[in-house]
Amino acid sequence: MRHRLLCSVAIAAALILGGCQTMSATAPTPVHGYVTDMASFNAFVATHPTPAQFRATYPDVQLVMPNTITTMDFRTNNSRYFVELNKDGRIVGGHFG
Q1: Could you report the per-residue pLDDT of 15-64, keeping only the tens digit for each?
Q2: Mind listing the domains of the chain with CATH numbers?
Q3: Which of 52, 9, 7 shows the shortest CA–CA distance to 28?
Q4: Residue 55 in contact with residue 67, Cβ under 8 Å?
Q5: 81-87 contact pairs (CB < 8 A, 24+)
Q6: DSSP string, 28-79
């Protein structure tokens, strides 16, 4: 009797916890290289990602945080993004430079 109860509880727990995995959000697919699809990039920025989410999604784009010192080289390939953050530290806009 006790063995059946333990097996039933174990199966129920496995089913419940297994269902939780399908409900979790999937990580975005990384976009390698520099930004060429501006529509997709702007749609991503409109979700107000965190800097960590930005780096995970666009690993090849240099993210420049406010008050960060950078070189003054002129880039035209969308490889360096200067962000604007809200009070919660989320990206709300910015520009390439």
Answers
A1: 455 555 444 456 678 999 999 999 999 999 999 999 999 999 999 999 99
A2: 27-96 (3.30.10)
A3: 52
A4: no
A5: 81/35, 81/54, 83/51, 83/54, 86/48
A6: PPP--SS---HHHHHHHHTT---HHHHHHH-TTSEEE-TT---------SS-
* Torsion sign (Cα): 65, 92, 62, 71: negative
Q: Given the structure tokens 């709300």, which residue do they identify?
A: 92
59 touches 30 (CB < 8 A): yes
User: CA nearest 49: which of 24, 23, 78, 85?
Assistant: 85
Please name which of 56, 80, 58 lies closest in space to residue 68, comparing C-alpha atoms.
80
6-27 pLDDT, tens digit per residue, is 445 555 555 455 555 444 456 6
Contact 63, 83 (CB under 8 A): yes
* Tokens read off for 40: 């997709």
